[in-house]
Every structure is written in structure tokens, then in C-alpha cells.
Design brief:
Blueprint (H helix, E strand, L loop, with lengths): L16 E8 L3 H12 L4 E4 L8 H4 L11 H4 L5 H6 L9 H14 L6 E2 L4 E7 L4 E6 L4 E9 L23 E3 L15 E5 L3 H10 L5 E6 L6 E2 L7 H9 L1 H9 L19 H12 L5 H4 L9 H18 L3 H7 L14 E2 L2 H4 L5 E5 L5 E4 L3 E4 L2 E4 L2 E4 L7 H5 L2 E3 L6 H8 L15 E3 L8 H21 L5 E3 L1 H15 L30 H13 L5 E3 L1
Parallel strand pairs: 1-2, 1-6, 2-3, 4-17, 6-18, 7-16, 8-9, 8-16, 9-12, 10-11
Antiparallel strand pairs: 4-5, 5-6, 13-14, 14-15, 19-20
Helix pairs in contact: 1-16, 11-12, 16-18
The structure holds NADP nicotinamide-adenine-dinucleotide phosphate.
């Protein structure tokens, strides 16, 4: 496509660059998409609001930040050569190395020249007459593309959530959200620090700050199931095994329900004797990562009795870690909270931190945050004096990243208004009726994100390739297909224990947000099949021309 001149009235008076496709977001998905669309010979630009690539691994630089998918399965899955060249240092790699890995891949595949950093997209408008999208950046620059792939992340750093606490403006100390962690290290030595939130982020931060802070106050609203990570360095021998078995491992993960290197046990929990199943739980407990969740009996998050059984085992394990029994009860999740109804955080020394003299729990079921003061946080039990406050309070998941851009489809309709008025929905998770040639490119399957990411990247690449082969220039999900898919997604999660509690899974963590299960509870292979069936059935559910 040619470069067109901007109208003279354009504030910047700059030429409007035009591309076959524009990708927004340089996380794992956006970079994978760039690699594949470039491989198809397309003229592609990737726009990234940050000053570097990596998405979540660029923004989240807090101490203790690591992923809890196994390193060898978290990787890009499209290059054996990359796997051969890269050495993982830990079984669950920490942020700095993951950011390095992504940068390494970007350079290795010559992608950097196609990436524009510090490029904040403010608006994307579908121009029906020209059959293109026009994007406007915060500096006023405009770009056009036939296709827009919005790889914004299901937990976009841009959509981080800070509760509306009264008096925050009065606080004289420093405060921050982990999604905006500075590049320079912060010296917490001897400082009085408050961490609000005990999800995966709060857990990782607490573990690290407990070792350095003068006094650490952990503000906990809901105690949850936090399991052992069992991280450790990768031996040279294991590294070799991973490299030699790379292709088989990737293929294996692609065919497991959740994209990990393990599968659930298909025996119904309660069909197994108590002795045998608790011995099984014990073995799982000693295994790394999410095995205790995803290699457990398949019905552990589906059947209330099965769930309660494992939850009881889990609560016992937490109690064993805390010296003070009264404190232990405050950290143990309530039997009313089903195991797996929230994404379980994984820990190494989280519970041990509470055995230290410099760490205290502020149990927000017993006391409440009244307001911030000049010196800290006033609770109903008195003032907690603080130098730093860390809001590990989560994200406005899935839609949050999209809401920050004025995305206008057919007839100028705003995507966020469509979602407000009709409910949050897509067709196939990746397209929206009324938004032609636009991909909501976010991995939403209940799984190891990079493995789901490659499924959606492959599908978007295939769709664009087929359109180009047939000389098609416009696709749009029909409203019927969109509505049917919303219903289809809903049927997968309705009545399930994992969808029963408020969390970022269903938007219930953000006050006022419309609730609906935002992940897609289909298995990864099932989802891949559904995507390709729609394409193979001559673009079923789409109007194409
Ligand atoms: P989160 O799981 O949504 O947890 C937010 C925490 O903030 C919860 O403990 C919540 O309490 C608390 N909170 C929210 N509003 C509050 C308020 N007004 N007052 C007091 N407490 C409040 O967020 P997250 O920990 O950032 O994790 C989000 C997701 O990011 C994770 O589930 C995971 O998928 C991903 N993540 C992954 C890793 C990793 O790979 N290891 C690390 C970090 C994050 P309630 O429970 O009561 O709502």
C-alpha cells in the first residue's frame, strides 16, 4: 500500500504512513504476530507505548517479579533455533531475564526496525470509504492500515487499578503500582512499607520486601490459596534436555487442555479413597508450579465436594507454615472460597515472611482502611505510619486496555460503548461485530499464556493470508455470530466453581464494571479447532468482501 499525504489541516502536517497491518503492543503476542506477518511479506508496523519491548515484562520491574509457567514452556514456540540459543537460568524465570529473552528474539529475527516505541495510540477509527483504519498517536501523528491487531494484553499495565482511597493526595510518602515500577531500583532498606493486595503481585513483592524493609505491613482483604512454586536454578543437564526435546515439548503443551507440560488426572476425586487422594495431593504439593491446580483431579474446580476436599488439604499446608496459630487462621482462606475460583498465586517464602518480626498483617476483614493521611493509612484500629505504599491491587482485565483507546468502528461507534451497552463480547475471542479488520488479539483461554498466544497469532496470520490470496480486503463478524459466540463462551463457564467468585476472571475486582466471565474456559486444543473450523468453513460468521 502507498504512503498518502495528510490533509493540510492536519496539526502535524506530516505524511500519513500506511501499512498492511498495524499491531498495537510489544508483548509476547504482539511480537509473535509481527514475526509471522513479516514472514508473510506484509508491511507491518508495531506501536508500543513503552520505551522498550516486552509488554508486561517491560513494565513490571518490581522485586520478585517472575512468571509461574515453566520457563521452557513460556517461550516463543516458533523457532527451534531460538530455543537452542537461549539458556533459561531458573525454572520460573525472573523479569529481567524474560525481558532480555524478548529483546534477544526481537533482534535475532530483525524485528526492531518495525517497532515504534513511545508510541501511545489514542484513537483508531475505521474509514469505511477507504476500507482502512486510521490511528492517531498522542503526539498527533497518524498512521493507516488495512488491519489492526490490538495485542493489548489481558492484564494490560496501562489498565492497572488503584482503588479510590480517600486522602491519597495528602500522603507525603511515596506510592506506586507495580505496573509502573521505575527502572532505577528503590531502596526500601529500613523503610516502613505498606503493600495493599495479596494476589500474585502482592505475594511476590511481600516475599522480597520482607527481607529488606524496616517494617512491612501487608493489607489483606481476602486470604486465598497460595501454593508453593518450588523454583530453582536450571542445571546444564536439564537445559540440554529442554533443547533436545524442544519440538516434542511444544507439541505436547499445544495438546494439553491448558497449554502446560502436565495434564489433569481424569479420575473423579471422590472415586478415589481418602488415603490415596491425600497421598496424591502430597505428591502434587512437592511438584513445581501449577501442577497442584492443573495436574490435579479434573473435577477439582468443577465439583463442590472434590473442591472442598483439596481445599481442606491446602488450608492444612498453610497452617503448618505460620508459627502463630491465631495469625495462621487469618492467612488461611475461608472454606467458602472455592480453591481455583481465583488464579492461585505461587510462593517461595510468602508465609515465612509472616514469622518475621518486621512483617505484620493488617486483616481488612477485622479493620478497614478509613483514609490516607499525611503519614500513612488510617484504619479503624489506628494509623499505620508509612514511607511507601505499594498498590498491588490488580488490573481492569481484558477490556481495560481497549477502553483507553477511542476505537471507532462502523458508523463511528466506540468499542467501549458497544461493550457497555451490549455487554462485553467478541466473535471467536478475537473480532467484534461492527469493527471490520480489527483483532482484539488477547489470549483469553484458561492457560499458559504464550501457548494460547501462538494459537491466536497463527489464526490471525492465517486469516490475513487467506484474505490476501483471494483478493479480499474487508472482513467483519456478523452480529449473529458475535451474539452466538458470547452465549457459547458463557455456556462454558456457567455454574462452574472457577467462575463463582469476584476476581479479574469476571470483572468483579473493579467496582462498577459489568460482570461476565472474561476468560474462555474452553481447552486450548478445543479453542484452536474452533478457530480454524470457522476459517475453513469459508470464513463462517464473517461477512467478507
Ligand atoms: P489481583 O490478583 O487482582 O489481586 C489484587 C489484590 O488487591 C487482591 O488481594 C485484592 O483483594 C486486593 N484489593 C483490590 N482492591 C482492594 C481494596 N480496595 N482494598 C484492599 N485490597 C484490595 O492482582 P495481581 O496480584 O496484580 O495479579 C493479577 C494477575 O496478574 C494474576 O492473577 C496473574 O495472572 C498475573 N500475575 C502473574 C504473575 C506471575 O506470573 N507470577 C505475577 C503477578 C501477576 P481481594 O482478593 O479481596 O479482591
Amino acid at each position: 500500500m502507498a504512503t498518502v499525504e495528510a490533509p493540510a489541516s492536519d496539526a502535524k502536517n506530516a505524511p500519513v504512513e500506511t501499512y498492511d497491518a498495524i499491531i498495537i503492543g510489544a508483548g509476547m503476542t504482539g511480537i509473535g504476530q509481527l514475526y509471522h506477518l513479516r514472514s508473510q511479506g506484509l508491511n507491518v508496523r508495531l506501536l508500543e507505548r513503552g520505551g522498550g519491548v516486552g509488554g508486561t515484562w517491560y513494565w513490571h520491574r518490581y522485586p520478585g517479579c517472575c512468571f509461574d509457567s515453566e520457563s521452557e514452556t513460556y517461550a516463543f514456540g516458533f523457532s527451534k533455533e531460538l530455543a537452542e540459543e537461549w539458556d533459561w537460568s531458573e525454572h520460573f524465570e525472573a523479569q529481567p531475564n524474560t525481558e532480555r529473552y524478548i529483546n534477544y528474539a526481537v533482534d535475532k529475527f530483525g524485528l526492531r526496525e518495525h517497532i515504534q516505541l513511545n508510541a501511545q495510540v489514542d484513537a483508531a477509527t475505521w474509514l469505511e470509504d477507504d476500507n482502512v483504519w486510521e490511528l492517531e498517536l498522542s503526539d498527533g501523528a497518524r498512521l493507516r492500515a488495512r488491519f489492526v491487531v490490538a495485542a493489548l494484553g489481558i492484564l494490560s499495565a496501562a489498565a492497572h487499578y488503584i482503588p479510590d482511597f480517600e486522602g491519597l493526595e495528602d500522603f507525603k510518602g511515596e506510592w506506586l503500582h507495580p505496573a509502573n515500577w521505575p527502572h532505577e531500583p528503590i531502596d526500601f532498606a529500613g523503610k516502613r512499607v505498606g503493600v495493599i493486595g495479596t494476589g500474585s503481585t502482592g505475594v511476590q513483592i511481600t516475599e522480597q520486601l520482607a527481607k529488606v524493609a524496616g517494617q512491612l505491613h501487608v493489607f489483606q482483604r481476602t486470604p486465598t490459596y497460595i501454593g508453593p512454586l518450588h523454583n530453582g536454578p536450571v542445571s546444564a543437564e536439564t537445559q540440554r534436555e529442554w533443547k533436545d526435546g524442544y519440538e516434542e515439548l511444544m507439541e505436547f503443551c499445544r495438546n494439553t487442555p491448558a497449554g502446560f507440560r502436565y495434564v489433569p488426572d481424569m479420575r473423579p476425586t471422590m472415586s478415589v479413597s481418602k488415603e490415596e487422594r491425600w497421598a496424591f495431593y502430597e505428591r502434587l504439593w512437592q511438584r513445581p508450579g501449577f501442577e497442584k491446580w492443573l495436574a490435579n483431579f479434573f473435577d477439582v474446580t468443577l465439583d463442590a465436594e472434590a473442591n472442598a476436599d483439596f481445599a481442606e488439604f491446602f488450608r492444612g499446608k498453610i497452617r503448618e507454615r505460620i508459627h502463630d496459630p491465631e495469625l495462621a487462621e487469618k492467612l488461611v482462606p475461608s472454606p467458602d472460597l472455592p480453591f481455583g475460583s481465583r488464579r492461585i498465586p505461587l510462593e517461595t517464602s510468602y508465609y515465612d515472611a509472616f514469622n518475621r518480626d518486621n512483617v505484620s498483617l493488617v486483616d481488612l476483614r477485622e479493620t478497614s482502611i478509613e483514609r490516607f493521611t499525611e503519614n500513612g493509612i488510617l484504619t479503624s484500629d489506628g494509623e499505620v505510619e508509612l514511607d511507601f505504599v505499594i498498590f498491588a491491587t490488580g488490573y481492569d482485565s481484558f477490556t481495560g486496555g481497549f477502553d483507553q483507546i477511542d476505537i471507532r468502528g462502523v458508523g463511528g461507534r466506540l468499542l467501549r460503548e458497544k461493550w457497555q451497552e451490549e455487554g462485553i463480547g467478541t466473535y471467536l475471542g478475537l473480532t467484534v461485530a461492527g469493527f471490520p479488520n480489527f483483532f482484539t488479539q488477547v489470549p483469553r483461554a484458561f492457560c499458559n499464556f504464550p501457548r494460547c498466544s501462538e494459537v491466536i497469532v497463527d489464526w490471525v496470520s492465517a486469516l490475513i493470508a487467506r484474505m490476501n490470496e483471494r483478493g479480499l480486503t474487508r472482513f467483519e463478524a456478523t452480529q449473529q455470530a458475535h451474539d452466538d459466540w458470547v452465549e457459547h463462551e458463557r455456556s462454558f463457564s456457567s455454574g462452574q466453581l472457577f467462575a463463582s467468585q469476584d476476581s479479574w476472571f469476571n470483572g468483579g475486582n473493579i467496582p462498577g464494571k459489568a460482570k461476565g466471565f472474561l476468560l474462555y474456559a474452553q481447552s486450548l486444543p478445543g479453542y484452536r479447532t474452533e478457530l480454524h473450523e470457522a476459517l475453513d468453513a469459508d470464513f463462517r460468521g464473517f461477512e467478507i468482501r
